[in-house]
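2024-03-11 09:14:02 INFO worker-7 job=invfold-0412 stage=load source=structure_tokens
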């Protein structure tokens, strides 16, 4: 067990607040990365998946819904075809197409022993950026959960080049967590939490620049590492949701994790009680945001100090093109991101709006620490 970092200890009072939030949560999202699944997937043993299935069933029996975000398709494909370590994008896509069916079969077989069914969902970033696709995905998830089916979710690596270049399942998992207003995301990895100067950070209420400096590089074999985990934590903290990072080598300890009885790192803000509205959570999680609106100092002040809508009068510059109802970035005059929001006009009309509302405060999410 790591020594706890004195600056990031989970105090008794915050532990009580955490336990209250965990008790209230009704949806648990489990994220299993490539590294934690590497050994179970490379062998014929079903032990890990059997233990995971038993632990998931125990959580569900307690009244909570469970979704699993699982990596491993490319790795599974490699083990079947003996592929080289350095791969082109097309080779990774082909390996994913081979490995995905084998991966879902591991889950299907393990849960079938407990008479529980699983459903496979492959997601691309574009499914989350379009509001209609987002709603359709949420409807599918809710229907599966209503039928007591465990959704097994992965990126659509076989066809989406962008996912393999920039995607990671930490980001996907936080997006899935943001679907549900009372969710907790448990990231199961090969280390027992986030370390600062070699010591365990038990509780991180805000992802500061100091925390980010300790993120390090991606873990071997994966696409994310701690950097993407911190990014996911930023989104969930801003939404007033919870995320934990734990050693996932023994999946039967899930119950201990949810009772805050296991060593690991919790990301939660004890002062934030109200979960961000659903549409704002979607805007915050939206990854396909390219166009920007640059605003002046007066607009920045109005947004942050008066909780105001963004008016056209405060706009200095429009960067890129966009249609009405698209999500855009709002930046200050130095180019730093300060918000994301859904516009009420297209880019050509915007500068002729004069004093009209460009982004209403109900569909505007403020970002104070340059997260994107």
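2024-03-11 09:14:09 INFO worker-7 stage=emit residues=372
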């Amino acid at each position: 067990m790591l020594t706890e970092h004195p600056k990031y200890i989970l105090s008794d009072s915050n532990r009580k607040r955490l336990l209250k939030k965990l008790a209230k949560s009704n949806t648990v999202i489990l994220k299993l990365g490539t590294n934690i699944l590497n050994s179970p997937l490379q062998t014929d043993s079903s032990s890990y998946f059997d233990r995971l299935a038993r632990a998931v069933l125990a959580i569900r029996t307690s009244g909570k819904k469970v979704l699993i975000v699982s990596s491993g398709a490319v790795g599974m494909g490699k083990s079947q075809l003996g592929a080289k370590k350095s791969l082109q994008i097309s080779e990774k896509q082909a390996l994913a197409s081979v490995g995905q069916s084998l991966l879902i079969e591991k889950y299907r077989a393990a849960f079938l022993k407990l008479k529980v069914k699983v459903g496979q969902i492959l997601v691309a970033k574009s499914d989350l950026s379009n509001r209609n696709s987002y709603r359709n995905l949420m409807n599918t998830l809710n229907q599966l959960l209503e039928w007591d089916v465990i959704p097994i979710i992965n990126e659509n690596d076989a066809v989406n080049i962008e996912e393999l270049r920039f995607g990671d399942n930490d980001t996907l998992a936080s997006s899935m967590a943001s679907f549900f207003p009372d969710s907790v995301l448990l990231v199961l990895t090969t280390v027992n939490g986030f370390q600062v100067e070699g010591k365990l950070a038990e509780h991180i209420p805000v992802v500061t620049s100091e925390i980010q400096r300790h993120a390090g590089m991606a873990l071997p074999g994966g696409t994310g590492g701690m950097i993407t985990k911190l990014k996911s934590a930023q989104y969930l903290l801003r939404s007033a949701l919870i995320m934990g990072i734990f050693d996932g080598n023994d999946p039967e300890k899930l119950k201990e994790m949810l009772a805050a009885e296991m060593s690991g790192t919790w990301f939660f803000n004890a002062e934030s009680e109200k979960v961000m509205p659903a549409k704002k959570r979607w805007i915050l999680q939206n990854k396909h945001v390219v166009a920007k609106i640059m605003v002046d100092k007066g607009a920045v002040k109005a947004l942050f100090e008066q909780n105001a809508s963004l008016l056209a009068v405060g706009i200095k510059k429009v960067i890129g093109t966009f249609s009405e109802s698209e999500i855009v970035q709002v930046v200050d005059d130095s180019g730093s991101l300060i918000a994301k929001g859904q516009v009420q006009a297209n880019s050509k009309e915007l500068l002729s709006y004069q004093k009209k509302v460009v982004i209403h405060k109900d569909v505007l999410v403020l970002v104070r620490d340059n997260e994107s």
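2024-03-11 09:14:09 INFO worker-7 stage=report msg="The longest strand covers residues 183-189."
2024-03-11 09:14:10 INFO worker-7 job finished
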